[in-house]
Amino acid sequence: MRESERVKKLCGLIHLLGGKIKTRKKVHKLIYLLQTEGEDFGQSFRFHNYGVFSPPLAYDLDLAKSQKRVSEQDGRDGFSIELLSTSKPIGQIADQFSDRIKELAQKMSLKKPQFLEALSTVVYLSRDFYSGDDLREKFLELKPDLEKYYETACRFARKELTPFA
After folding, report:
1. Nearest-CA neighbor of 83 among 102, 93, 43?
2. Helices in 37-163 by DSSP H: which ranges?
3. pTM of the predicted structure, to 2 decimals
């Protein structure tokens, strides 16, 4: 997927979520999780200090800023990425997401970044063939500070995400 298409799809997701997403960290987790559900954002991910991370997505966010498609601001509630244009083409891109992806994106966007970090870590590790006690052990080795989110992340994954259904 070309970078212009990736940026449009990113803007479509932001539009879908009301024109604003708090923190880049949350954007990375949302897009990773939506990709695991089959929505192609054209991003590749690796595991990083803060969980799944996509260098191309970081580039696309910077590109969208330089093209004045989004702004990134530090407000009372922390950093947020805000869509600058709600043009008809952006709305049409958002409309192309399946109902399942729309519902899942909206549900997950309401979660704290720490929860999404825990959830994306659980999904990432399970794709590396960890399960049961091994999954928990590896999760706690990598993310001991997120232990309180582990069980709820696993429950959410089992209930909402295809690989766990």
Report:
1. 93
2. 55-66, 88-95, 99-109, 113-127, 132-142, 147-160
3. 0.92
Answer yes or no: do 20 and 83 share one domain: yes
How high is the pLDDT of residue 75? 66
Q: Which two tokens stand for residue 57?
A: 């997505």
Sheet holding 70-75, edge to edge: 20-22, 78-83, 70-75
75 and 115 together in one domain: no
75 with 1, same domain?
yes
Backbone angles phi, psi at 72, to 5 degrees: -125, 120
Domain housing 11: 1-97
CATH value at residue 28: 1.10.10.10
pLDDT in tens, 10-41: 999 999 999 999 889 999 999 999 999 999 99
